[in-house]
Specification:
Two copies of one chain form a homodimer. Chain A has 211 residues and is mainly alpha-helical. Chain A has nine helices and no strands. In chain A, α1 packs across α2 and α5 runs antiparallel to α7.
Chain lengths: 211, 211
DNA sequence: ACGAGTTAGACGTTTTGCGTCTAACTAGAA
DNA sequence: TTCTAGTTAGACGCAAAACGTCTAACTCGT
């Protein structure tokens, strides 16, 4: 039960701290085998570390899982920032943001092989991290919509929904794209692009085609 | 402990007997997760069958594993036969035979992900099936060499080794191609082709390039 | 109604995994 | 050297999972 927040993620002894080293090993195993099939022994071996060391830094398996999720959250945030930094139309930027957010987790989890189980585990033992995960997307998406609206590129009110609802709807659509015929990673990214196109069209300034 | 050899592989109730159905489910799981991580529960669920049913047809997990191997052996035999039925030079036919034999198992086992563990399990609980596996290759390879020699296409004695030793050496070479930097399935098949080329050159009738 | 095959579920046993703990080892710092 | 922080192998007790067995009930085709 040593102090985890000491010598934490920010400290780099020889470039990578124990905690990240273990979290990354755990990510590889959870992605490949799922949560239940991965034992603490497996994680220790994958990380090249003694089993006892895991318990020096983490309270248990669920804690390792949370740390892994937090690490993944950091990655997602970075990718979202990069996606928005690049130029492009609103539609393109929205698609890039969705790919950065939803696609990162999807591809990290081995193209969704164990997504069902992992999602269930997240809900039960890592609700906070899961919420943070979604909060990242919401804040970036809101910023994107508001900037585009401020520059007159889009008109959010055209969608008939308040921004928060619009974003929440978009997230549900992205979540739905994972289910029903497990898609490959490329398929999933394509579906995300289609969703982005629809939502961009819904707020486009110029009138849409109408028969 | 019902009679397994009754209603065995050759019987096809509605096209596929329980035993094959279960063995195929087991193959999928062993390939994806390895032997240890796959439980009888998993196999039953994957096969869409009650757990008790497994024990109506098999003595235990090891028995399921053996049946799965036997099924795979049948597939390999078929593919070897097809490979030799096609026309081509000795070198090409040898390469095709090696791909059919070694490649089938390799690709079935998820590109060699769990090959180490599965091989260890084979040795410990399925020695007979493993031997049969290798015997298949030996008999086909011997036939290929002897036919080509009879038709004057190759001269086995040029290799300086008796045929049995030559084939055994070739099998060891193929086994070695799996290790050291886990290859992808295509890489592995390429390595096999290279090995076939070398062994074909070693028994080629015309004199090899010599500086 | 019969029987062969299957099923859910319970059972006792064995194995595995979890989380804790200890004594020993390794390095870098004082 | 000594001290300390971090690590390590291995043992421990407990809980959970998996194994293999068994039974009573169900579903068929005959």
């Amino acid at each position: 039960m040593s102090d985890r927040s000491e010598s934490s993620i920010t400290s780099g002894e020889d470039g990578k701290g124990r905690i990240e080293q273990i979290a990354e090993a755990a990510l590889r195993l959870f992605a490949r085998y799922g949560y239940k099939r991965t034992s603490m022994d497996d994680i220790a071996r994958e990380a090249g570390v003694a089993r006892a060391t895991l318990y020096l830094h983490f309270k248990g398996k669920d804690d390792v899982f949370r740390a892994m999720l937090a690490g993944l959250g950091g990655q997602v945030e970075t990718r979202c920032r990069e996606a928005l930094a690049r130029p492009g139309s609103f539609s393109e930027r929205l698609a890039a943001l969705m790919a950065a957010h939803h696609g990162t987790a999807f591809s990290a989890f081995s193209a969704g092989e164990h997504l069902g189980e992992l999602k269930a585990v997240m809900v039960s033992i890592a609700g906070a991290e899961l919420a943070a995960f979604e909060a990242i997307f919401i804040s970036f998406a809101r910023q994107l919509f508001e900037d585009a609206a401020a520059q007159g590129e889009i008109a959010i009110e055209r969608s008939g929904l308040p921004l928060d609802t619009l974003i929440a709807t978009m997230m549900r659509a992205a979540a739905g794209a994972k289910y029903g015929e497990q898609p490959s990673c490329e398929d999933y990214l394509l579906r995300l692009r289609e969703i982005a196109a629809v939502f961009a069209a819904a707020v486009a300034r110029d009138a849409p085609l109408r028969a």
